[in-house]
Amino acid sequence: MGQEITHTRFSEADFQRFSTRLTAETAALGAFARAGGFADARYVAGIELEAWLLDHTGRPSPVNEAYLRRLDDPLVVPELSRFNVELNAPPVEMGAGVLSALEESLLTTWDKCQHVAHGMDTVLAMIGILPTIRDEDLTLASMSAMHRFEALNAQVLQQRGGAPIRIDIEGSDALHLSRFDVMLEAATTSFQLHLQVPFGQAARYYNASLITCGPLLAAAANSPLLFGRRLWQETRVPLFEQAVDLGGYAGLAEPTLRRVTFGRDYVTNLLELFDENLAHYPALLPIELREAPDRYPHLRLHNGAIWRWVRPLVGFDAAGAGHVRLEQRVLPSGPTVLDMTANAALYYGLVHALVRQRDPAEADLAFSAAHGNFYAAARHGLQAELTWLDGRRHAARDLVLGIALPLARQGLQAFGLPDAEIEHYLGVVEARVRSGQTGAVWQLQRLSQLDGDLHRMMNDYLENQRSGAPVHEWPL
């Protein structure tokens, strides 16, 4: 979804050509995989961070076009709104030093971005949903000046038959509203983790990644507020799902076929997901691409417009060798780079440990339970109850401390990380969970102390973020 497109209006012939190419590329991908084309057996980590541009009052600052020109860094690219940008870090092969390398790379880019932002009387912020965002900030006037975003918005509304997008979220407060554009998606910023894996084990890693979603999100929630309402601990989840609310072919009411989805079930082969893309999801951006067919450009573009919470990706290295990787999308942006790197450590270690078990983890946890865990964690954070492989219900806090963290340590050791590096990052998660102070909990408690003053709370949040201290150490 990162590439720009040349036009925003499409004919029936455009859709037919795209469908023909997508069908051919899906078949070719299957043949390539069966022939052993995915020979890269390395494990490689990567990260993406979506961030906010704010003015001196803490309001969103819609200047990303001028900002990106001044920054001139290929690792930083536009997002849907004019007040968001995305920071990337070069991928790093799994092994000793991988976490510290990812953290250092992101910190270096972050510091450069902040320096340029300050020169424009702007500040960069990492938080799942900006508490000071207003409904009137999220209009088409704030959309980034790129054809792909304009076309995406038009196609979503067209495939909905012009029906408004409805937001209905119930928490401590309630939010109910209707919109005729997709711009509410811009309020949801995330920290996305990539893990390249051997193709022969990719299905196991996909299934295990779904299983990690519940405990991972419970320990990392950072999006409890929208338009002043106290909603879910990770309000990003229902907001993103409802802001791009589309189903499959002739199936807008089919609950398991959504464009933003946890999925329909576990898989036995990762290619099942690309077959599902072809069979069930109409194209949103039927662009004719000039890239070589053996790079599967139409398949990759189509896949990028289906926002699974764990998304399969096909990529190519500089030498042209193909690989598959998973994009874990459940984590929010923030509170600090250290917190996010610690969350990455939990995911990478936990998923690797689950796959290394003798019996497949998915055989011991029904898909419906993994699905329920994810939404329970999004709604309740560390106060959720989650079902685990032993068939028992656990308090999320106890599950993370007693089961997930020990497994993550095992997984990171198996990846070759030294004990000191493992303890440095997983120790942050452990201290956060023991304290009970996630980013979401801190926001809600600080807001209560300030009698609901969102701007003062956000100023305090930014001050603590600048300190670099992990969120469990932030004072109240």
> How much of the polypeptide forms β-strand, as a percent range?
15-25%
Number of strands: 15
Cα radius of gyration in angstroms: 21 Å
Structural class: alpha+beta
Largest sheet: 7 strands, antiparallel
Look at the structure and give the mean pLDDT. 95
- Which parts are unreliable, with pLDDT below 50 for 5 consecutive residues or more? none
Outline, from the CA principal axes?
globular
What is the CATH topology assignment? Creatine Kinase, Chain A, domain 2
> Helix content range of the residues, please?
40-55%
The tally of helices reads: 15
Please trace the helix and strand order, writing H or E for each element. Answer: HEHEEHEHEEEHEEHEHHEEEHHHEEHHHH
CATH architecture: 2-Layer Sandwich
